[in-house]
Amino acid sequence: MSYNFKHYEKTDIRNLIMAINVMGKDLTGLELGVHQGLSLMTILHNCSIKKLYGVDSWKGYSDYLSPNPTGKPMYTISPEDSEFNKLVTLHRVKYSNMKDKVIIIDEDSLEAVKKIEDKSLDFIFFDAMMTEEQTYQEALAYYPKIKPGGYFMGDDAFCHEQVILPLTRVLKYYNNVNPIQIYGRSFMFKV
Predict the structure, then answer these.
(1) DSSP assignment of 94-148, as one string?
(2) What is the rounded CA–CA span in Å between residue 106 and residue 95?
(3) For an engineered disulfide with 13, which of 5, 39, 143, 180 has Cβ 3.0 to 4.6 Å away?
(4) How many structural domains is the chain composed of?
């Protein structure tokens, strides 16, 4: 048995697959915040990928992202559920018929970033944000890993205060004048 996520529509990356494909062939990418691997597998099966990193610590967490933040968690994932999500991801990768292209980094995002060379990625799919501060810190750390002309992409654009505003600060920090493009829940900008 092998998984096939070709034309898979039930994932956060669906609006960005065409943008990745326009970038060319034999791409190197990274997904930050893998969860159960749906977006990871969708990228793998629908784009020309040379290497795809999946970064997640798979620890329990509370997600505070909301279009109207209240300071209270929108939902919480237990450590046991996070462990299950990791096992699902590893199973999907194992039976993807492309496991040799995937590198899973199972650790805190700000530690994992040290394992990625600067300017080595064609794109990042950023889907790990749970707070405004986390968005800012992770985006600041991962931005230099993208090649000039590559794309910083992500989900949860509807959470303007906690996602788009921190990304705007990161763009200013790196003197990037490219606009953040938003379509539905997705965002992207050129590095």
Answers:
(1) HTSS-GGGEEEE-S-HHHHGGGS-TT-EEEEEE----SHHHHHHHHHHHGGGEEE
(2) 19
(3) 39
(4) 1
